[in-house]
Input
Amino acid sequence: MRWYNNFSVGVAMALAVTACSDSSSRKYFETTGLRTPASACTVDPRSLGQAKAMPDIDEGNGCEVRDRYSVSSLAGVRFSQSATMNCGLAAPLNTWLDGTVQSSAVDAFGERVVGIDVAASYACRGRNNARGAKMSEHGFGNAIDISAFTLESGRKVSVLADWNGDRAAKKFLRQVRGEACGEFSTVLGPGSDAHHRDHIHLDLQNRRSGNAYCH
Output
């Protein structure tokens, strides 16, 4: 009888896993009106840092990444973990890191940034992980969340811990967030809402109006 019970439990677990992996069960977001990013690469990410071309993602439920790359550094700044993104995100991210982030770091701390903590890149989910919300730009590999910056000295400047920290950290974090709006169409962070209190969200949402949303 024990073997039968174990077999029954095994079958039940297998069915549960199958149900969880079904693509329809993961479509808990709204895709109507979403505009996928352009698929053409204007700049090869491999010319900007450590990047590897990867097979496209298409989960069959709205989430897809065309011209997908796994990126582990840009502009000489290493990532805490490889970020999965479409090729179009790499160039503006590289420009922001190489320009705004480095100049702001030197201005505030007298040293450069050598690393960033990547909190999220590609993720097939709704905005703010809310059921029924529009699909996040993360679902296109069109967004990245950054939670901290590491300086040459080894000091880590955290969005959560240092947003209201010392004068230099506050100046740096506000400047890199504020000037990101020149490269990205959406910039969110502390004060936007509770979901963004611990990171800076950057994306290239393809809006019909062409307007940016920086808050």
